[in-house]
Structures are given as C-alpha cells and as structure tokens.
Amino acid sequence: MRRILRGGRVVDPVHGVDAVRDVHMDGERIVPPFPDGEAAEIVDVSGCLVMAAGIDLHSHIGGGKMVIARELMGEDHRRHRHAADGPFRAGSGRAVPSSFATGYAYARMGYTMAFEPAMLPANARGAHLEMADIPVLDRGAYVLLGNDDLLLRLLARGETTAVRDLVAWMLRATRAMAVKIVNPGGIEAFKWGLRRIDLDEAGPHYGLTPRRILTALAEAVDALGLPHPVHVHGLHLGLPGSAETTRATIAALEGRRAHLTHLQFHAYGRGGPRGFSSGAAEIAELINRSPNISLDVGQVMFGTTVTASGDTMSQHRNAAHAHPRRWCVMDIECEAGCGVVPFRYRDRNFVHALQWAIGLELFLLVEDPWRLALTTDHPNGAPFTAYPELIRLLGDRDYRNAVLERLPAAVREVSHLADIRREYTLSEIAIVTRAAPARLLGLADRGHLGPGAVADVVVYAPGPDLAATFATPRHLLKAGRFVVENGALRPEAATLRGAVHAVEAPFDPAIRRHAAAFFEDFRGLRLESFELGDDELAELGPLRVHGPTAAS
Amino acid sequence: MNLSLCPFCPLLCDDVPALALRDPAATAPPCPRRRAAVARLAAAGEAVPRIDGRPASRDEALDRAADLLAAARMPLLLWAGGDVAAARATVALAERLRAGLDLDRGGRPAADAVLRARTPLVLATLAEVRNRADLVLLFGTDGTTVLPRLLPRVLRPSRAIAAEHLRTRRIVRIGEGFAPAEGVEDIPCPADTLHRAAAVLRARVKGHRLPPSPLAGRDDLAALAEALRTARYAVVIWHAAELPPPRAEPVIEMLAGLVRDLNRERRAVALPLAGGFGGTLEKVALWQTGTNVPLSFADGAPDGEPRRFDGARLAAAGRVDLRLWIGAGVDADPPAGPGPLIALHHPARRPDAAVALPVAIPGIHTDSTLFRLDGVVALRARAVTPSVLPSAAETLAALRRRLDR
Fold it and tell me: What is the ipTM of this complex?
C-alpha cells in the first residue's frame, strides 16, 4: 500500500534533514516521492515531528536473569498489574514488565527494535523463546563470551584463529546479533573465589589477563567483520576508581573498535570528601579523541528497579545494597553467570544522585552523538519507560537544573553538571535514539527515512514538555503499517510478531568438532542439543540475517 | 549410534539411544525412570477421550470440557507437566478463564518458589557443579531416586575443568533410608531432625557457639561443617518434595543461608532438585505474566502470592469449583479435589475425570522444548515416533477457541 505522511517536520539526521516535508512509503519501505494520485492514503501530520522509529541497542528484555528478576520483584508486579483488554494480553511489572507488556510499552513509546545485550549461550533457546513473546519489536541478542571455559582454553593455548572460528560458530549456534563481553575473565575468576581482578592480573586458572581476553575478542570481532564491535561491559563496574579502569581499557584496545556499554557505571572517580566522584569529564574527553570507541550511557533514574547482569563478581558485591533484601547469584554452565539484585535509586542519596549526574555529564560532554546511544541499561539504571524523562533532561537545561537543585548539595559541589549549557537538539535526540544505534549495529535500512529504509516511522505531537512529546507518539508505523494510531495501540499490534536479527560470519567447520569434544567432556551435552535448530527458529518469527561488513 | 534427548525427567540426558518402541529393553539405558517410562509407552495402546469414563470422540470431549469451563466460577488449572508450548497455552487459557494457576505438587507447599522470591540465593547450573565441586552435600535426598543418573551425569563425571576438585571430590548424604552407594559417605539423620542438622551446620560454619544438644554434640556434623568451611566449591543439594512438608521451608532457608555464609570467604552454591517439568511452566508464567505460580487471574490481572493462591489449599478450602489438570507426559493420576475434573493425561492412564483427554507425550510424540531442572538451559526433544494424539498445547488451544465462540 502506498501512503504519504504529509506536512510533518521531518527530523532525519542520517540525511541531514530537519525540515517540513512529506514521507512516502510503499508497502514496508520508504520510497522516493510519488504523485498524490498514486497514494492509497495521505495522512496529515502537519505540526508534528516525524522520525524513524526508536531503536534500543541495549535493553535486557529476555533471558533467564529477567525471569529471576521478575521473581524477586513480587511487590512491583503486585503493584502494577493489568488485565487482558481485547486482544491485548494481561501482564504486570514496572521495573521488568512481562513480555507482552514490554512490547506494548515500547510500541507506545515509538520504538520498534530492541536488543538483549547479554544472552548466555546456554540460555539462548530460553531467551529467544521469551523474546518471541514480546509483540511488535524486532529483536536480537548479543552472545556473552569471554568468561567461557571453551574460549579461554583456546586463548590460553594461543589459538587465536580457533578463537575467531569459535566466535563465528557461537553466533550461528545461538543466533546472535553481536558479541558481548562482561567483566573479561572476572566472572570465571569469581568461580575460583576471586572477588576482584585488574586489567593486567593473570586469571586464577588460565593465567589470562582481562586485557588479553578483551583484545582477543575485539580482534576476533574485527577480523570477522561483524557490523557491531565487541560490546564491552568492563571491569570494576560501580567501583570508585572505575573511571581509571575505563581509561586503561580504552588504551588497551589500541585503536581497535569497541562499544563500551553502560559507561556511567564505569565512570567513577575516587576524589572528593567521600571518596566517590565523577570521572565523566576525563572519560568524555578521551572518547572525544578516540574514534574507535562508541558507548551507551546506562543512565540512572530515581526509583525502584532491579539490577541484572552477567557480572557475578560485581553483583555479589552489590548484593549488600539489595532493596528489598533479596538477590540471586548464579554460576552458569562454564560460560558465565548471572546476578540479580533489586535496587532503589534515591534522589536524597549522595551516591545515587551523583550517579545520575555522571550519566548526564557523559551524555553532554561526549561531543559526537553518532557514537552514543541513549540507554538506561534497562532495567539496571531504570526501566526503559524512563526514556522520555531522560530525553527531557538532555534537551531542556532549565528542567535539568531544576532537578539538580533538588539533589543533595554535596552533589552540586562535586559535579559540573550545572555548568554544562548544552541542550540536545531534536536532531541529536534522533541520533542517539535511532540513527546512531542503527549505524552502530550495521542496520543500513533502519534509523532513517531515506528511500529504501524500512518504513518504521513515528509521529510525535510536539509540546513544551519534551517528556510528554516522546512518551506518547501520535502514530507509529512498523514496516508501513499502523501500530499506534492517534495515540492508541491498534488491535493488530497485540499479535504482531517482529523479526529476529542475527549476524553470520564464516568459520572453519573444524571448530564444531573441537567444541563437540569439549561439550561432551565437560558440559555433558551433545553439540546437536546445544545448537538452535532451524525448525526452532522458524517458530520464533522471521529471521533477518546480516552478513559481515568489510572484513579487515 | 543414533542418540536422542530423554524427555522423561528434568535432567534431560541427551546421550540415550534413540527410542525403539518395539524393543524397549534392548535400547533403554541404565535408568529406571526411563525404562519404566518406555515400558509404559509400549503398553499405552490406543487411548481415547472419555466423558464420565465412557469413550467419546475428541470433539464431543472438547465440547463437554468447554461447557464445564464456561460454567465454572472458580476454575483452577493444575500443571503437572508439559513443554513450553503447553505452558504458553496454559497461561493463555488461565487468563481467558480468570482462573487460578498452580503446579500439582502432590499437596505440598511451593517451598522452593517461596524461598526464591524471598531469600538471597547463590546457585549453579549442572555443568558448574559437574566441573567445580570439591564437596557435594546431598541434604535429605540421595538425588538418584528422583534423578537416577544424577551421579554419573553430574556429580561423578570422568573429567572436570577443575580437575583437582574432581580428584578430591567428596559426596556426602545426610538423611535416612538411603540405599548404599559406592564412594558416597552417609551421615544418618532422621527426617524430622533435618532442620536442626541444617541449623547446626550453619552455626558451626559461622563459628557460633552451640547450646548443648544431641545434634550439636555429633562429631560427624562438626567434621562436615569443617569440610564445608574449607571446601573451595561446595555444592549443597536438596529436593523440596523429599523434605518433610512442615520443615521443608525452614530447611531450605537454612541451607540457602549456609551457602550464602560460605560465599563470604570461598565459593559454594546451592542446587535445588526437581522431579518434573514444573519449572517449564514457572519460567513461562514469569515471563508472560511477570508473576510466578501459584497465581490467580480472578480479577483479570495476574496476581501472585504463594500462600494465598496455593492450589492445594484453595481446593481443600472448597474455593475451587472445577479443576483442569495438565499432565502431558506425566505417568500419574490427578489428585482428588472439588468439582468436576478435566484431565489432559498420559495415554497409558485412565484418570477418573468428567472429561479425560489423552495428549501426546512431549519429546516422544512431538518436538518439544523443555527446561532442564536448573532453569537456565532449555533443550529441544525431537519427536521419535508419530502419534495420532494431539499435543497438550493443541488441546488447550482448542478449548480456548470453543470458549471464544
């Protein structure tokens, strides 16, 4: 069906557009302009903002740790329950909404894609099944490597070619979109009883340093030509002094591509009277002159949430701060682990308030929005439903300073936030919420409104309050079809199933034989049981396979 | 040899010979549960739907079941077993009916689920236990009655990543009535004092002084506490269904605390066992509704509160007027209870039900995804023999369609 969105203010930074113009679509794609007479429908969106639909490149939307998180958040789920409504399924939860509710909430916010950033290989089947119950969203997952005994054994033997093959085979076996590394070597070290590991400290069993593991994976991802660089959750999450570790990590990458995720949690200094300070300025400055580095922030917003991570070493330490006092830490399948800790960020707490300020400092001091993605590391910093409020903080300096005024005075003494004049423009907002995530993931036909793009388009009715504007779009189209129309989810959205996005890269089949021997010797599992079958994938929805970009 | 995945218990062994129904004895591995399950398959014959015990066509039986469901005011869905597809259909039907939903735990309370939602836990999956344990404590269970191949598949493998831990690995059972097992140490303890033994162990590990008591004075428990305290990777295993019901929760809570305490200095993990596929429903219920079972859709929205919506308790209190029992692949009968019963059952069974609907066995008759007992690993068991029986998921969907008509 040919359709024209008429007269909106189109904000499409990929094409340098911020102007009133029409958007033409034919079927599921954006197309060059055609005469009005050929349109089956012309939708008047004059006075509205028109953007490509939102893309979340780091949001924990599926997998075992989210199942555990829901189990630990009983009060939140009892407080936020909703019944089925026509075709829309019942559900519950604010911090970690149930699967159907997750899809509805993202769609209501104008998003059509989200990526689960920490899928354990052993949990790939479960994670994909869970994400298949999230309506509307196209989705994908990053496979967690770098603490798994299979890879570490190969690396310890210096078999870097085999490591590369292993990465490519793992992507295929688990149908993943990218490679994630969490606390390189740290999760494995935790299983041997270590509580902290430094960048150049040899691991307890394989003698590998985190530096060696991280660079090996960065190299493997680059050699395979994967669109998204290695997605790095660094060492020392949440520790005072983590900013220093982050700087050393960037240096260790020696110019290799890497995406540093939820960097807010890795941007803490040891300064100030309380030994906890912002390292955001130094890190932003380093990132500004490191074009190989991209990041997402993992902004903290005040309220109750739950932290969930593969980083058992950090989460076991954070468990002391659990609110309410319950948590779960799990060693998983000689691959990694998970740690789930309910948490409440309080605006009267100095540390929490400074975390909030540090995240905003990163947003505002990193100059190139094309290397930055807007995230709260859902649900770790806050649920993804906080994005509109976060957008307002970025785009409205008076509002930001008004919130800052309410925070403990000690925060204003150690944070430069009040001095930062920058306000995100609408183009910059569009970059960090769709254009940059699409580019960072190598999704050439997403995140923009040029001809050939998938017609995932959102229409906002702008008002004085940016949060209100971005919280309740007027229309959302996915692949050229209305999902939200005049502010309401259409009934078809209830059963609309998005695609699974995955990457493939070639590998030497010998790696399967090697992996099979490891699996049978140590995991007690045949490789055929582990690998996702094509028959299973067919049940998950359409599959979109992305190939390598120019391999280096 | 053609190997397949065994869907008969949540250990989900994948090293078993592909099933040959004509000659089950020749192909069954050394597992009594599998052997028995395979024998029952061969004996199942041609199961037919029944209404009040009389054979009926499937359509008649579904119509009758839908009529009963439509008339019920306080229906309870009881899950005894099934695959992910059945779990999805079960949650959808419970939502549609505004029903209660719980596991069939044989009348026992939801001890593990209650604890998980309340108590900090340090856990591990099977491969971690297999590769890292240097001390395994089976608390109140021998492990093998419920999961016959637990020892060779998990606790006593031939190789491990932590080879030194495996070389020095001790397996200790505490409880009573265990069949002797080679290389396994036993500490006798009557079932009704297990909670005290757990408390003594935890107190000793923490270095607390104990008031004098028979258990506090026992050298074997003191030695075990010392072994736990010095273990590099201790694994504490329990099976809630084998603990005496009134004490199950306190025992598990104490053991969870013991494991947590051990992690202050060293590493230790807990591994709760399960005998069936309740976990598969729990996972699906949690991701689809945000709430674990037992839960209720009475007001339309999922509401989970373990004690309030405990299925057995509701049934005993007469607050249930119809039960729908989902036992795909479960070679057992539904429990007695109030109101008419609709049973989705194993084809070798003839449950006494208002409507009995035999359904395919997951992983035997249908391709099925099942969660292993450690909850993280889901595996696909592929059909090994065709069946005319519909799956539980298809049956539940057919009921839902009839209700929507």
Answer: 0.97
